[in-house]
Amino acid sequence: MLSKHVIDDAKRCLQCPKPKCSEGCPVNTPIRDAIKLLLESKIAEAGKLLFDNNPLSLVCCHVCPQENQCEGHCVMGRKGMPVQISAIEQYISDYYLNIYKPQAIPPSERKAKIAIIGSGPAGFTIAFILSRRGYDITIYEGNDKTGGVMRYGIPEFRLPKHIIDRLTSALVDSGVKIRLNTTIGANLSLDELFRDGFRAVFMGTGVWRPRKLNIRGESLGHVHYAIEYLRNPDVYNLGSRLAIIGAGNVAMDVARTAFRHGCEEVTIICNLDESGITARQVELEYAKIDGASIMLKKIAVEITDEGVILADSEIDTDENGYKTARPIPGTETLFPADSVIIAVSQGPRSVIVSSTKGIKIKDTGLVAVDELGRTTREGVFASGDVVTGAKTVVEAVKISKRVADAIDEYVTRRHLLGDESYVWDVMA
Question: Helix 85-99 crosses helix 43-53 at what angle (to 10 degrees)?
Fold first, then answer.
């Protein structure tokens, strides 16, 4: 039983005076203290401790790379198995979310209106923090359901969708308003939000524009992009043989999802050697267990109706150790495939930026911000993948906690107190 496993593992915790597990966590999860409370039959207090530190604790315990973070720093792992922190955190956080009763403040008593664009990890984090501080929060989501990458980019077998639904209900119960099927920059503009009384706007729109290979055949009908496939794999007919170009975590998610939707042969193609596999080791192992094959040092040079033309790759390493691959002429061969999915990262869509004056973007297309998440337009903040590129959920939470504080300070000083000494001087 899971509960027995959790208790047994919790008892293995040494209650270190300086817990390395917390030091290894990007949001410094107080797992030692939570474990202590759990073993004292104070699970509600343990859950509150975790939730107050990270409103998405129940998400993070499912999807974080624990082997490199909390569990990877556990001193028990030096000579044996580390404490299974993710399972303990899941047990506590799941319990707490079931009993969580937010205090809904009436709209008339709210401090000020704040708009949140996007309901991914960054948007959820900001909404939880600022709604609890008394702000009137409205979330604008372009899809018909909340969650962003948590719902549409992470497969069900890694992150059950009911968790996102429960978090959404908790936000609604706390008084947060959610407008679905509303794309800021298309349906509404930032200028209209400020016109209607919002004192600050947060952008957490994620990265949904697939990166292209720019090779011949990329527009063919049996070629798809990973981020689009994962949104709704049920509507795709990939055939029995699938070739995946790319070897990151998203590629592994695609492979495992494809097997669950009828594919019989799935091959992951990496243009580098083993060092080019950027996926977590555990995700790679799961993909292999499910049946995926890995091809190394192969570059896709063309896609045809019959499959992918692959060339052997030659790897160059610069003075900083960065590796690049280039095709070796004359080594091209056809790799047969019914479908091809390209999984080589993604970037932000520019609908908000292109429709709004005053927001600077970098050459990468990502939004330029200062250390507080402030953009070059006053009152507009941003964090998450739209600023950093595709990162983990916990990294989005880490940055968004700091940005929430900055939004609180800005609205309080600039609008509630009328502090004219507050200067928005962002060069980004």
Answer: 100
